[in-house]
Please model this.
Amino acid sequence: MKKLFALVLTLMMLLTSVSAMAETLTMCTNASFPPYEYVDGDKVVGIDADIAAAICAELGYDLEILDIEFDAIIPAVVSGKADFGMAGMTVTEERLQNVAFSLSYATGVQSIIVREGSEITSYDVLAAEGAKYKVGVQMATTGDIYASDEFGDDRVVRFNNGNDATMALLNGKIDCVIIDNEPAKAYVAANEGLVILDTAYAVEDYAACFSKNSPELVEKFNTALQKLIDDGTVAAIVAKYIKAE
Model:
């Protein structure tokens, strides 16, 4: 009986160990923001996906990625549908009311896309007193927040993703798009007749978001992230997707 009990106990310990090894962290994102996240075949890839996978590997977790609308990311994290969100997300005072953030892992630049030959040749033209140019943004992004605060809701047109905003610009339904510079470059490269204005609209730092009820996870995530920053892993991932100019 003692031998049988010992065998059962060993099996239970092995099963517990296997279960712990297979534990999964769920990340939600919006995979229409290249090169930070986009779909390649049936898989979400990009800077955020690679950094999240490296952090999970460091912590001993598997990674599951949910592709949802950008404005659904924070609700998904708050409700517990996902453990964290990464989507080129900037820390803002408004977002801090609902979620906690990790250390910053990348810097983004908000840029302005216009059609070739546009009257909008600079930020000053777009922001001139009396200007009525329609500004396209991805809903709930910082581009949306900045443009709404600066130009007013009557001039801002919101889209579910950057690609829809870009198509609206090409079709003449709006006059420009404000979006992160890296996806902006991807959209301009894929669509003839668009250009990016030389002047940056805003500079911001990206971080992962978490439920405020998960301080231990945030601490572990930050410890792993800092290690990957220090050993050059994060820089190598960014360089893989964003080539030096």
